[in-house]
Amino acid sequence: MKNKSYIGLSFIILLFGIWAVPKIIDKLSGGNLEKMGKAPAFELTDQNEKKITNEDYKGKVYVLEFFFSTCPSICPIMNKNMKKIEEKYFGNPQFGIASITINPENDTPQVLLDHAKSLGITSKNWHFLTGDKAYIYSIANKGFNLYAGQNNKAAGGFEHSGLFALIDKEGNIRCRKDEYGNPIMYYDGLKDEGVKAIIEDIDILLKE
Q1: Of 13, 63, 74, 186, which is least surrounded by CB within 10 A?
Q2: Which CATH number applies to 34-206: 3.30.300.20, 1.20.120.1560, 3.40.50.1360, 3.40.30.10?
């Protein structure tokens, strides 16, 4: 009877291992990324005065942010962290970045070109985008649900999220889950942990 009990227990442990190990690996690797719906469509102008739409990113994994060139607070940190991501995938035609200004009245294509040069950006797949202010705010606040607004009391006169959005090759917003199993939706563009997580998940999406 004891031998049968041991065999039964061993079988249960084996079954648990078969079920649990892939899930543990998934959690550690950032796998099993959630689809949070389609990213909103957009049509804007980049630093080279070229019209860029979401269709230009079709077939690419891309990261999107909202910023402005004269931001004195969180943008320099976001720029630095986004550049780390850009350097990791430099020259990869399946990867891109979209940085959309929330101060288009100042951030003309020429201003954005100068800003890109000041950051040392040479990638053809990183577009700094500008356009109509109300249109951009609608993309941010209604399309992505990433806050952007004008506030004369805020540093630089504008407020916005420090989060990065991750979009897959089919135009879906993707993300990992937190420790409780809830989708994080977006990645913290101000912390090393957020940058590490998004790079891990870009790697996953590039293989899809």
Answers
A1: 13
A2: 3.40.30.10
